[in-house]
Design a protein that fits this description.
Length: about 190
């Protein structure tokens, strides 16, 4: 049976409400930085940040180890049960979790996950799967949109979405219009 690109996008309920609340509370004291990304149009290979881009946090929080285990469990389910394939037998690991925070008026520009900063010399490879999880629902706007037709994928608090990290999966997050959107990301290579 032939699969469509949408068939490789899966959303899993993985994190309970208490862990979501704990993560958000721990992130309230985080030192957030402006998100930057590789601009493929810029011949100098420079990372840029849009004026309304989200904020990111790459450091540890107390509950990160527990969250990392939940992410591992979902990756394992995706690869060993949902998309078990003779053509996809190995992967090297997954990146440390990065937290994303979208305040009112903030967004993420359309992109594909060709994450240059992941491969700084220690890791070898390319991202093959993208992971996006959510820890809250109490915001408006901030829609996760994919493909040219801008299909919305709703990722509720406690859910983790996995999809391939290739050019066939361009995505963005629309501007948050009310509240604050807290998510986390990681990439399998």
């Amino acid at each position: 049976m032939t699969k469509k690109v949408e068939d490789y996008i899966k959303i899993y309920q993985a994190i309970d409400e208490d862990l979501c609340k704990k993560i958000r509370k721990e992130l309230d004291s985080a030192r957030w930085e402006k998100h930057t990304f590789y601009d493929v149009k810029n011949k100098n290979n420079v990372s840029v940040s849009g004026s309304n881009e989200l904020e990111v946090y790459n450091e540890n929080i107390k509950s990160k180890k527990e969250l990392t285990q939940k992410v591992w469990d979902v990756i394992y389910k995706y690869l060993s049960e949902d998309f078990k394939s003779l053509y996809f037998q190995s992967w090297q690991g997954f990146s440390p979790i990065r937290f994303n925070r979208y305040k009112e008026g903030q967004l993420m520009a359309i992109h594909c996950d060709h994450i240059h900063s992941l491969f700084d010399g220690e890791r070898k490879g390319i991202p093959i799967l993208s992971i996006v999880g959510s820890s809250n629902n109490d915001y408006e706007g901030g829609k996760f949109l994919m493909f040219d037709e801008e299909k919305e994928y709703k990722i509720k608090a406690g859910e983790i979405m996995i999809f391939p990290s290739v050019f066939l999966y361009p995505h963005r997050v629309s501007s948050v219009t009310k509240g604050m959107r807290d998510t986390f990301v990681s990439w399998v290579w």
